[in-house]
Amino acid sequence: MGGFFTGRTLADLGKALRSGEVTAQGLVAKVLESVDPDLNAFVTLDAEGAEAAAKRTDQALASGIDRGPLHGIPVAVKDIIDVAGLPTGMGSAHFDGHVAEDDAVCVTMLRNAGAVIVGKTGTQEFAFGATGDVSASGPVRNPHDRARMAGGSSSGSAVAVAAGMVPLALGTDTGGSVRIPSAFCGIAGFKPAHGSIPADGVFPLSPSLDHVGVLAASADDCWIAYRALTGPADETVPHGRVAWIEPPAADPDVVRTVRALFPDAPAEPLDFAGLREVFIAIEFSEAYDVHAERIADAPGLYQPVTLGRLEESGRMPGWRLVRALRERDRYAREIAGLLDRYDYLAMPTMPITAPELGATEVEFGPLTALLVSLTSPWNVLGLPALSVLAGTVRGLPVGAQLVTRRGAENVLFDAAARLA
Amino acid sequence: MGGFFTGRTLADLGKALRSGEVTAQGLVAKVLESVDPDLNAFVTLDAEGAEAAAKRTDQALASGIDRGPLHGIPVAVKDIIDVAGLPTGMGSAHFDGHVAEDDAVCVTMLRNAGAVIVGKTGTQEFAFGATGDVSASGPVRNPHDRARMAGGSSSGSAVAVAAGMVPLALGTDTGGSVRIPSAFCGIAGFKPAHGSIPADGVFPLSPSLDHVGVLAASADDCWIAYRALTGPADETVPHGRVAWIEPPAADPDVVRTVRALFPDAPAEPLDFAGLREVFIAIEFSEAYDVHAERIADAPGLYQPVTLGRLEESGRMPGWRLVRALRERDRYAREIAGLLDRYDYLAMPTMPITAPELGATEVEFGPLTALLVSLTSPWNVLGLPALSVLAGTVRGLPVGAQLVTRRGAENVLFDAAARLA
């Protein structure tokens, strides 16, 4: 596991950069040394661009310009997010050789905060899937067991952080794609409220569910990165009252591990099945809209699994989308009521630990549904959701997911700090 | 044609009521005498309820309570609009024997304005169709030629007015259902801006396209009724600049007749085909949502034509609805730009005159698409649209349709007054 950044927090790195113990250029070199090609986390390493950017941030710091906690920090970016001048492949043969012209807004935000983009990380093809092993760039491997899935779709971002190749990465999350690989790889992943980090310049999967998020070794580092990108918190909300949400179908060892962190939280029901209907109707309809012409023109360029899911998406009837949009409003009111009574909700991020590469079914159900079962409701509702390491089951990481209302993000990180 | 109300305006009737020349009870009697069962305009006549209500309005007027221009005026209400205590059949065997418990909001508004509800008028089954001849209550006949369609779906409301049975009727309009039968029957019909008259208590066809509207012999009387229901105009906009919108497929005699009223109006293009795609995607998706359980439980209770259209609606893919909603926003911006340059738009209401009952195809194309081709764009955009008599072609009425922006409704009525 041990890349250079394992065990080094953003605060540690910031101190070392400011004391002159390390330079941003030196950190870029550490990234390049730490990359383990067998894990397949990176699809593009931009040594030259990163070195040049690092040199500029070193010069800035030397001349007294300090852009804050991300100044000089190497960051990896998921390969569906545009970085000007770098290949942006979307994990798909459709974008083989495609080079982005401009930075996505979230990348501009990173650069403005002084971060150094070191490369692009592997993604599930078009971010449409949560296994992390369906991509034109091949499967990303879980550093805890290389025969297992990293989870997706921000697979490479999670693995690059989990294996200590970088201290921070950007990902995207439409049904759990930041939180799922974070949980499977034993790191922290934060999906902010919908729109908090703009998705302009990110290849869409389902625009009304797409979120840009951050992945780091700890919740603390996610919070630092999130705040560096979006500015100070709107409000600081006192925490305390937590409700436990019991998963409908899950590995009991996983549930037990997470539940142990919240022994006194009263259990509250959640209509996971209904929320899944809403999620699927929106995601499928919007995803096919994005891909309709590409499917007609060059179906053979998709990975067969992706094409199959897209074809299924195209058959989602409009009337189910009409119902989903109405139901979403109803659920939003219901959950707003729940979050009046509690400061945050806690549950496992994933109902299972990372399955073996290539699996489609596990003991607890078919994988496609299971993987997003506990994460996708918070995309439907656009609520801030954080995954943090809760423990291990049979040597594999297990994540706890904490959810709150928009504006109360600090509650999640305060709670995570108390768990750590 | 000659029912009692033929040639009598709301102003005439109001004067006669206030001079004591007639009473509201006397007007109810005139309605009952004027009904021509062969036209099949009414499905329910509420002689008893109307007489009681008329008596109350007569007493009110005698005691000095005057509710304005609709005080004592008999009004017919389309049979998908709830009137408390009256059968409300939706033109469907599904609602055979169903009696509404409460008044729809628009009916309450009518009553508050002093109007007397005299009965319920025939509607296309569930308002889903514009021919006026598909209904559990049988075809409504065109008073200008009883072998021809009245148009729909507010067929009975239009015929009741056109044949002088009532001076005013309420209808609903999802793709043209107020304006289509108004044009075919030679009267005026006004579909206000979306939501201007609330649709609560009206059986939904496609909620985001559904509008409640008014039908009367003249545009003047539509304006009086509309204002009596909704209050004074927000603004009074000077009129003048009119653009001509050329229909894509139409009877040239119909086009010539309407164009002659606006000889100097510059022609502006409109993407009728694109707007139709938007209309169909929204209407079909929302209509199937309304009917899904009913179709599963008792498909045999639908008229076969209605069931066929609903089944087709259920196959509308969600991704086309996603595109339609995005396109609607684009068209709304485009038409807002056009209505910055012009005060109103003019075009035929219908591209053809009333076809024979049972027709499915005419010289200018398949009827289903043709009937809503010029009216449905204004449901998609939610804009106020008025149909007024423009002339006749081979003895059949032809309507001119005038469209403007929300808030500039008076422009349409000022223009219509100058045409009359």
Largest interface by Cβ-Cβ < 8 Å: A-B, 19 and 19 residues
Number of strands of chain A: 15
CATH class of chain A: Alpha Beta
Order of helices and strands of chain A: HHEHEHEEEHEHEEHEHEHHHEEEHHEEH
Q: Compute the number of helices of chain A.
A: 14
CATH topology of chain A: Amidase signature (AS) enzymes
Structural class per helix/strand content of chain A? alpha/beta
Provide the CATH architecture of chain A: Alpha-Beta Complex
Largest sheet of chain A: 11 strands, mixed
The CATH H-level homologous superfamily of chain A: Amidase signature (AS) domain
What is the rounded distance between the termini of chain A?
20 Å
Helical residue percent band of chain A: 25-40%
When the domains of chain A are counted, the total is 1
Q: Can you give the mean pLDDT of chain A? A: 97
Give the helix/strand layout.
The structure is a homodimer of 420-residue chains.
Chain A: H1 10-19, H2 24-34, E1 42-45, H3 47-62, E2 74-78, H4 105-112, E3 116-121, E4 141-142, E5 145-149, H5 155-162, E6 168-173, H6 179-185, E7 188-191, E8 211-216, H7 219-230, E9 242-245, H8 252-259, E10 267-268, H9 272-297, H10 304-314, H11 318-341, E11 344-348, E12 361-362, E13 365-366, H12 367-371, H13 377-380, E14 385-393, E15 396-403, H14 409-419
Parallel strand pairs in A: 2-3, 2-6, 9-10, 9-11
Antiparallel strand pairs in A: 1-3, 4-5, 6-8, 7-8, 7-14, 11-15, 12-13, 14-15
